[in-house]
Amino acid sequence: MKLTILGCYSATPRTFTNPTSQVLEINNHIFLIDCGEGTQVELRRNRIKFSRIKHIFISHLHGDHFFGLVGLISTFRLLTRDTPLHIYGPKGIKEIITLQLKLSNSWTDYPLHFHELISKDSVVVFEDEKIKVSTIPLQHRVYCNGFLFQEKPGDRKLLMSKVLNYDIDVAYYRSIKKGNDVILDDGTVIANEELTDDPKPVKSYAFCSDTKYDENKIPLIKGVTVLYHESTFLESHQHLCATTGHSSAKDAATIAKKAEVGTLVLGHYSTRYNDIELFKEEAKTIFKNVEIADDGKVFDF
Amino acid sequence: MKLTILGCYSATPRTFTNPTSQVLEINNHIFLIDCGEGTQVELRRNRIKFSRIKHIFISHLHGDHFFGLVGLISTFRLLTRDTPLHIYGPKGIKEIITLQLKLSNSWTDYPLHFHELISKDSVVVFEDEKIKVSTIPLQHRVYCNGFLFQEKPGDRKLLMSKVLNYDIDVAYYRSIKKGNDVILDDGTVIANEELTDDPKPVKSYAFCSDTKYDENKIPLIKGVTVLYHESTFLESHQHLCATTGHSSAKDAATIAKKAEVGTLVLGHYSTRYNDIELFKEEAKTIFKNVEIADDGKVFDF
């Protein structure tokens, strides 16, 4: 599971900082999460292959999270894309994009599918045999969802040295990997745990930006491998969190602690701060395993 | 008259090139012309003061000319702007911007005025005592206007050494500067040309992007100080001009020659070319005074 931060600052693109966008590589998928202005340039800079992006998840319709989307969609067309693109985001996103394409007289030549979100409860938005993506309803000034990416458990690992001790037909291997016991011709039952080992542990990633401090999401993100949680403010500006619908570094750390996550990644910093290391320092007073996002940073989990 | 090129490449923003946007400083105005994605970052990089931009001119609704506009409008709000902003562009631009602001629940706190254009003839879009801005209808794949910025002639220069030869009351000075003769108390008429010199020459700038080769605009841009004319292609791709609605370097030079402009500035290069000096070489075979735009380049005319 690889996370590339294309941008992790709030409000506006600036000379050396970008608004929110990140790429999650998991189980051969390349998921683009949020798409602030300049995202397509950051994709190039970070050498992410455009054609591998098939799903884009937009948390909410504040500009610093989606103003780069229409440009990226247009660029896909210029690059003669023909594979389908799926956009998941709040209701209204389809109207915004299609209006701009219509007025520029340039519809896409590739299939463009919008999956508009309206639910205030968590819903599954994408699923295949290896991964499931669901929304994490967030509390912000406008309708906003985080996204939870969960690997599905794979097959159990066949312990061949054990299997070969018995006269087991190869035809049963698939069943054993699915966790079933084996009954030999003489009626002997061999317990599955004797023949297999646990599948490799599943990983999960929860993206939570933007949100005020809100414990409602804790059951959804309980025990995730990595939690990205916005931390717009330091403690010195804690009083701004409520009015702006944002969190402080300590808020994020408290959620991480209560949700017992593996690693907390901080981001969405207010551009008023010059030293983002301070976010880590404050968060670490509450939760130990803290990383700070920064533009161009790549995490391997 | 100072022209700052924020971006001058066609199609998409890339790692080291930006789509069309430029700043014209003339007679204490800062005019922003076109606003591709990333324009606000380029404004910062070129140290253009955001608050001094009061008029934005958008040629057409292809993304590489206006996808940065909504972000800039939003950033103005975050910077607590309170002075009015005027946007001049094709019909539809108001709907695009207002829809995005509405869905992000973030209207501007400053007065935002849209001046939507539909005319296929040249119209005056802005005028004050020192400057006039009019459209230059262009031939492209969608409705598109260039813009002509013209200084107005100032007052004639009073030649004080001459004026003091006569017993002329100070109250007449303003009339003389306007070009009127003086009639002394004894009936003597003093011709204006004896008392004044011509005002300083007016300057003018014509922005023409995007357009196919089209001589209809020549009367409008006749004799301008500077003509920016798109040159998307080199001669080797001349055959693409007709289908895409663009011009080659030689097309631009031919227009410059026929319109007898002072200086031709080329831009809007297709990103297929690595060496933009070739545009200058080809244009110079037809028109002598050619400059090539490049991102971050500043021209003083």
Secondary structure: elements and pairs:
2 copies of one chain form a homodimer.
Chain A: E1 2-7, E2 21-26, E3 29-33, H1 39-45, E4 53-57, H2 63-66, H3 69-78, E5 85-90, H4 93-103, E6 112-117, E7 124-127, E8 131-138, E9 144-151, E10 157-158, H5 160-163, H6 173-177, E11 182-183, E12 189-190, H7 192-195, E13 196-197, E14 204-208, H8 218-221, E15 226-230, H9 239-244, H10 249-258, E16 263-267, H11 277-284, E17 290-292, E18 298-300
Parallel strand pairs in A: 3-4, 4-5, 5-6, 14-15, 15-16, 16-17
Antiparallel strand pairs in A: 1-2, 1-18, 2-3, 7-8, 8-9, 9-14, 10-13, 11-12
Total strand count of chain A, please?
A: 18
Q: Report strand % of chain A.
A: 25-35%
Largest interface, C-beta within 8 A: A-B, 34 and 34 residues
Helix and strand element order of chain A: EEEHEHHEHEEEEEHHEEHEEHEHHEHEE
Task: Please tell me the total number of domains of chain A.
Answer: 2
CATH architectural name of the largest domain in chain A: 4-Layer Sandwich
The helix fraction of chain A, in percent, is 10-25%
- Tell me about the biggest sheet of chain A? 7 strands, mixed
Instruction: Give me the oligomer status.
Output: homodimer
Number of helices of chain A: 11
Q: Major sheet of chain A: order of its strands? A: 6-5-4-3-2-1-18
Q: What would CATH call the homologous superfamily of the largest domain in chain A?
A: Ribonuclease Z/Hydroxyacylglutathione hydrolase-like
Q: What is the overall shape of chain A?
A: globular
CATH fold category name of the largest domain in chain A = Metallo-beta-lactamase, Chain A
At the first level of CATH, the class of the largest domain in chain A is: Alpha Beta
The radius of gyration computed from the alpha-carbon positions of chain A, rounded to a whole number of angstroms, is: 22 Å
